[in-house]
Amino acid sequence: MTHPSPTGRRYFGHRRIHHVTERRFAQAITNLAEQVRLSHPRVGLVVGIARGGTRAATALAGLLGIPSALVFARHNTSEDTHLSASGDVTVDLTDLPAHLSGMAEGTDVLVVDDICGSGATLQVLRRALSAHLGADTAPVEAVLCRNLGSAHAPDLVVWEVDDWVLFPWEERPSSALPLVELPAPSEGGT
User: In what order do the strands lie in the sheet containing 179-181?
Assistant: First the structure.
């Protein structure tokens, strides 16, 4: 199977819809928590990108036993499948400074989203966060899925995908493509 080179543009093979079932979601969160404990032990706050990253961030913060916060970002203009990335991302950090001020010195922020499609949302959020983080605080990025077309490489990824993804909190799209469950996460992620 040929995979595209990272371009910063979402890639869709149009062969299937990858399905993250509830079972796979739970396994993925456990996998990510272990990766964070092993490779980023200084994380003191989980920041979920609402909407898609909300449930993952909340579950991950619970497993890690640390607080969480939400930021709001919008990239897709609709919920239709196989959309090209516009590159136009809006971010609202209104509630974040209060959460950051309560962090212990020397701790990092874990930014969580469901998918890194083109990478634009994570890149815009990283730049926006930099104005609020101290010199010794680094954002660490974790996603359930990374589209193979993305030129952006988050720190922690559970699955690399080459088609549209259906998450447990989403309604099945109207599509003739088969729904295919993603495999169990590998030890240590990708």
Answer: 164-166, 17-19, 179-181
* pLDDT at residue 127, as a whole number: 84
pTM of the model: 0.86
Question: Residues of the chain whose pLDDT is less than 50?
Answer: 1-3, 78, 82, 188
| Nearest-angstrom CA–CA distance, 100 and 96 | 6
Q: How far apart are the first and last CA of the chain?
A: 18
3-state secondary structure the chain: CCCCCCCCCCCCCCCCEEECCHHHHHHHHHHHHHHHHHHCCCEEEEEEEECCCHHHHHHHHHHHCCCEEEEEEECCCCCCCCCCCCCCCEEECCCHHHHHHCCCCCCEEEEEEEEECCCHHHHHHHHHHHCCCCCCCCEEEEEEEEECCCCCCCCEEEEEECCEEECCCCCCCCCCCCEEECCCCCCCCC
Closest to 114 measured CA to CA, from 142, 140, 85, 149: 142
Between CA 37 and CA 39 the distance in angstroms is: 6
